[in-house]
Amino acid sequence: MHLFKTKIGRLRILAILEGISLLTLVFIAVPMKYGLGNPALVKMMGPVHGTLFLLFLFNTLSVGVEQQWKFRETTWKVLLACFIPFGTFYIDHKILSRL
């Protein structure tokens, strides 16, 4: 797969994985915890999501410096994406896929 060969490609993969981990937490793990009294998936997915979140942040900054992104035009939008549900999917479609 050619996405693994570039830093932007790896950032795109992280964006998708981070988004999927958030959706898993919000729509599956948290309802299981509070609706069914089963916190196992939250205990498993919480650290996974946290790690992917941090990797996305650090890789965004790394790619932004390497690609000489202007912070006010690109970097802040990509960073903001991981704080908004579905944001990483949107930012991948609107910015990262076009780089």
Care to describe what's here?
77% of the residues lie in helices and 0% in strands. With 99 residues, it is mainly α. The chain has one domain (7-98). The longest helix is centred in the first third of the chain and has 30 residues, at 7-36. It is elongated, with a radius of gyration of 15 Å. The two termini are 17 Å apart. The model has no long low-confidence stretch (mean pLDDT 91).
Large-scale geometry: elongated
Return the domain count: 1
Count of individual beta strands: 0
Helical segment count: 4
Distance separating the two termini: 17 Å
Uncertain stretches of 5 or more adjacent residues: none
Overall pLDDT metric:
91
Radius of gyration over C-alpha positions, nearest whole angstrom: 15 Å
- How does the helix and strand content classify structurally? mainly alpha
Query: What share of residues are in beta strands?
Result: under 5%
Summarize the model shown.
The chain is an all-alpha fold and 99 residues long. 77% of the residues lie in helices and 0% in strands. It is built from four helices and no strands.
Pick out its properties:
99 residues, mainly alpha
How are the SSEs placed, and which strands pair?
Layout lengths: L6 H30 L3 H27 L4 H11 L5 H8 L5
Helix pairs in contact: 1-2, 1-4, 2-3, 3-4
